[in-house]
Amino acid sequence: MKVTIYTILAFMLLSSSTCKKEQETPDVKKQLLGKWKYTGKSGGYAGKSQKADPAVAIVLEFKRDNTFLRSENNEVKVQGTYTLTRLKSIYSGKEENAVQFNAAADPHNRGSIITLRNDSLTIADNVYDGFTSGYVRLK
Fold it and tell me: pLDDT: is 133 or 19 the higher one?
């Protein structure tokens, strides 16, 4: 009888530990679509902040077909595809929303953590001593 009870308890314990509750995340792609104006970056080895040059309008555009454009003063500089995913963040240690750009557009990109708040977008390199770039939505 004890063996049966212990077996049932062990089964219940194992089955409850393997079931993860799905995290409800907002429709990130829907929020991300559109044009974003670069506002500056911070980070790197020295942890410095650098505001965007007002003479250079850098715009990042995410499209429905998983393509993106990065332009400077209305001239496309980089284009390619992107994938939205979830990655373990070096900042929080938890899975967070992330964007990965195709290798041709960004050969060193292993995925960047994205944060969307109101009309602000933050894209943070998911590596130590990486950079965090800020954007505001263009209307």
Answer: 133
